[in-house]
Amino acid sequence: xxxIDDVLRLTHEVTRTGHWYIDLDNNTVFWSDEVFRIHGYxxxxxxxxxxxxxxxxxxxxxxxxxxIIEQTLSSLxxxxxxxxxxxxxxxxxxxxxxxxIKFSGTGRPQYLFGVFRDITExxxxxxxxxxxxxxxxxxxxxxIMTDPDGKTTWVNAxxxxxxxxxxxxxxxxxxxxxLQGHDSDPDTIEYMGVMMSRLEPFTAEILNxxxxxxxxxxxxxxxxxxxxxxxxxxxxxxxxxxxxEKQLLLNLETEIDSRKVLEEQLxxxxxxxxxSGMPNRRHFMxxxxxxxxRSRRHDRQLCVLLADLDHFKRxxxxxxxxxxxxxxQAFARLCNETLRIHDLSAxxxxxxxxxxxxxxxxxGGRVLAERLRQGLETMPVTVGDQSIPVTVSIGVMETVPExxxxxxxxxxxxxxxxxAKHKGRNRVVCAST
Length: 433
Description:
CATH architecture of the largest domain: 2-Layer Sandwich
Radius of gyration: 49 Å
Strand order of the largest sheet: 2-1-5-4-3
Number of domains: 3
Helix content: 40-55%
Shape: rod-shaped
Structural class: alpha+beta
CATH class of the largest domain: Alpha Beta
Oligomer: single chain
Number of helices: 15
């Protein structure tokens, strides 16, 4: 069974606490075993005296400690101080000493008794906690802590600065109820709620509202806090104002969209005729060649038309170039309304147009060409108060395996077109195979 002395000894060892006293009758000093150990010595390895005890203190603390003890002896009041002690190995140990005068049965001061405790680790931890608290308070990131129900228990200065809410306004409230509004993404809010209910860490970006109602973006990194027994203490969240980052991203997306529009416009300009809005010769030649190869590979019919507006120069001379432009545009509209979606059309010259008709033989090409001819002949082109009669001549050809390029195909269609012009214009002529 443990004796009282055993309990006292174990208590001193566990708490790193010793006791000492000065016998005021003979001015001798006593150290308990733990006091020796705090100084780095084996218990009883030497006999301490008052001068020795004082010299164990750090040079910068000796005079203060001696003065405190002398004042206690003269005033008979308790002492209480913290000072640095030099360990045998040269390390500095921080100790907390408390003591008081013990009197004899006759009321005479007999002992100055004190308790000596090593608080080095405690002080280190306290200073570390103080530094940590200052860092959390002064960091630019917004930090918030909540209880298990998600209600605010602590925020740093950055959080109040960014949100505009005071600590008093935030305490005891759920931050989302104060900061989220009608433009905050409901899916993100639901996601954060689900992760908190699962007690899982998460990162999310959310649009918030400050105290004045202005919106700002926050990136939230949140994780649950547990004690040593696994019980939930609450949630801790580090939040960053990413409004500038979001604005830069929005500006970049706008810039990218603008560039895409510009690139699309440039591609259109490079491949289309500005006046008619139809593809130009370059675009026609590239796509017609691809279609020629495809039709030949799959042994499918392919027809090419070449059309020329009749007496176009005379229209320009008699009615003016604005009238000529109106005629071009009118014929382009007619082509757009008449051709199938997979047919290819283009303005390949001043008043010359080319058409490529996939899956179409010579007769099919002739029928479509006739529709174009009749459509233009019966369609009045009006400029101002003048109605301008316009006709078109069209040559039609169907490709054969011997046709090795689009230029050769156009040449055959052009030959049929020349024949249509020679026969009086306003007609369709098919090339002989």
